[in-house]
Design brief:
Strands 2-1-3-4-5-6 form a 6-stranded mixed beta sheet. The chain contains 6 helices and 6 strands. Helix content is about 35%, strand content about 25%. With about 190 residues, the chain is α/β, with parallel strands linked by helices. The structure holds inosinic acid (IMP).
Amino acid sequence: MQIIFATHNQNKVIELRRIVPKSIKIWSLNDINYHDTIEETGKTLEENAKIKSDFIRKKFGLNCFSDDSGLEIDILGGEPGVMSARYAGPLKNNNANIEKIWKKLRNRRNPKACFRSVFYLHLNKNTYCFEGRIDGKIIFEKRGENGFGYDPIFIPEGYEKTFAELGNDIKNKISHRAKATFKLIDFLVNS
Ligand code: IMP
């Protein structure tokens, strides 16, 4: 099976290729020479994943999937959510995003949060959605050197370390993205 991953993020593609069986060949947008940005105008992670996948399906008529992920904080009504990358502005500055969250949370104790990841798949004539989620809490200092984004301020449930302290070996087994990815791969392998 050949399928397009509607992303320009080569790291995501490499990560996925490591875990899919060789019978499934994954092409990124760079691989098929499509370099334009697909605007993410959706109000939810699901909408954004669908927008990207629908766009590529319509343009190339091929099987494809896309993903969208974000951090959702209960007491902030699910923010930053779909705005996770651009929470403090279009420059996508991680430190500014974290500062904004801390400012909004002020004195809240152990604010509950989760990371969610959504994959939207076009396979033949059908569409499918897969979700992965990890619950946890936000802390008011940065801890750890690994990972990216909000990893230094997120402690997953059942652990005492942040994602950034736990490192990729553990994170890649328990994260929102890992869970959604395993569901997608499982489905593709059995299709
Ligand atoms: P994307 O949809 O996977 O590109 O994620 C959008 C944004 O959500 C990222 O730029 C990060 O700010 C945040 N995010 C998503 N997944 C993670 C994660 O695993 N750790 C930390 N931040 C994340």
